[in-house]
């Protein structure tokens, strides 16, 4: 799909948004002073905020490459964020030009840049859904116009679940996984407070003060999202440690781990 013009959208610049803060951490320009202000406040709590974003992005690249090389030809990415090349569809379609990808996000600024998410190969397809992750039925209905849910799909929620509270997060993942065909995969990543509980609590308080949720999870809490699925080795690991041999690895100074977990699991 080509030739899409960015639609006119109304963007609330009075409150920070995770997608725009993530863009700022990655060095992008699609953010506003309110996003930068909060991002810098987070950096004051942990100076490695940019490294966290880059390490998570690198995990997405490696996981997508692994899935495409493993035969997956359909991808549903919820919590897409502002386009940063290479995007998920570009990684997948390098290996599998016929891959079909559906992106979903709730920030209007992502919609404004949807054209960058729709540059599919002629053999494949890409589409963008403007929807909130807390509305899985709407997402599934729209995604079903592009993806065949009777066949395997790679479902990714990357750096998303830490913005959703416990019961809502578990219910969302379970609902979506229930709709996937056998042979599908679940791909997750999220921030943890395991290595700095005090800093994580301070970051959560900062989010609450801005009317947002930050729910860091322990290794055990994050692993629970994969219940009933078969984890791909090495299982739930630090994001940086998931199959580094597959490609992009971020060189982070110091010996302290980047506090984020990741995992990929197959539905039997």
Secondary-structure blueprint:
Blueprint: H1 18-25, H2 33-45, H3 49-69, E1 74-78, H4 88-95, E2 100-105, H5 108-112, H6 114-117, E3 125-130, H7 136-143, E4 154-158, H8 166-178, E5 185-191, H9 197-209, H10 219-223, E6 230-231, E7 237-238, E8 260-266
Parallel strand pairs: 1-2, 1-4, 2-3, 4-5
Antiparallel strand pairs: 5-8, 6-8, 7-8
Helix pairs in contact: 1-2, 2-9, 3-4
Model description:
The protein is of the alpha/beta class and 268 residues long. It has ten helices and eight strands. Strands 1, 2, 3, 4, 5, 6, 7 and 8 form an eight-stranded mixed β-sheet that branches. Helix 3 runs parallel beside helix 4. The longest helix is centred in the first third of the chain and has 21 residues, at 49-69. The two termini are 33 Å apart. Mean pLDDT is 93; it is low at 1-7.
Largest sheet: 8 strands, mixed
Written as H for each helix and E for each strand, in order along the chain, the element string is HHHEHEHHEHEHEHHEEE
Rg result: 17 Å
The shape, in one word, is globular
Outline the low-pLDDT stretches.
Answer: 1-7
Mean pLDDT: 93
How far the N terminus sits from the C terminus, by CA atoms, comes to 33 Å
Binned, the helix content reads 25-40%
Q: How many β strands by DSSP?
A: 8
Strand content: 5-15%
Question: Helix/strand/pairing class, anyone?
Answer: alpha/beta
Specify the number of helices: 10
